[in-house]
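Supplementary Methods S3. Complex input for the adenosine-5'-triphosphate-bound model.
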Amino acid sequence: MITVTNVVKYHGPARVLDGASLAIRKGEVAAIVGPSGSGKSTLLRCINGLEEFQEGTIDVGDSLTLAGGQAAPKAALLQLRRSVGMVFQSFNLFPHMTALENVAAGPVHALGKPRKEAEATAKKLLDRVGLGARADAKPAQLSGGQQQRVAIARALAVNPAAILFDEPTSALDPKMAAEVMKVIDDLAGDEQFQAAMVIVSHDLPAVKRIADTVHVLNAGRVAYTGPAAEAFAPGGPVENME
Ligand SMILES: Nc1ncnc2c1ncn2[C@@H]1O[C@H](COP(=O)(O)OP(=O)(O)OP(=O)(O)O)[C@@H](O)[C@H]1O
Ligand SMILES: [Mg+2]
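Predicted complex, serialized as structure tokens:
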């Protein structure tokens, strides 16, 4: 579903991704963990076409390849918007729109869905994240945890092939973080839900619970890939993470 091959990315002189490689299958829940500054956010942003990189390739789905050293064609970026959802630490909702409008916006603008149909789907997704009753609230009227659940509903709305989560709970207090993790847990456990999920999180107990595969990033390289049970074993790669 997603294949990252030898990706190199510089920020100025700093080699932030240093030949990173990993593969994520359809329906898989993959976690990327690693020390602060190891390149986790940068890698997600490269996969999502938000940043260019200098070397290597990133394949998403069957027909889309991003190549290092060249700007992604507009059509590829559009295709990415339709096939990869992203959930950020800071929610990034449109402040002037209601929860419902935020969730419906992608299908209307990126997929050209009729507004009525998009809003009906958006309502179902808000129900799914436990916010059906708050469809008409603006982001400022919602708690951080509720805003993040709206952001997850928004990412789901384009029916993506993959969803990338970058520290989705780290801006939240423990109670709200647990509410958001519950939604992600439910998606991970839902047999019907076939999108690949990639989660970057410092919440290691949550990662251990939901991830199928763990990738440890260290200084811009994937230093370890393995099943969660092995990654979290006593004395294993996660415990020994620098
Ligand atoms: N826009 C930028 N300009 C220059 N350097 C950057 C930029 N964005 C990130 N970096 C650098 O790239 C490296 C990797 O950053 P990145 O945000 O990907 O790390 P991370 O693993 O997500 O860390 P954290 O766990 O703190 O979120 C860091 O050294 C960071 O300082
Ligand atoms: Mg980060």
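The helical segments are 40-47, 74-83, 99-109, 115-128, 144-157, 174-189, 204-210, 228-231. The two ends are 29 Å apart (CA to CA).
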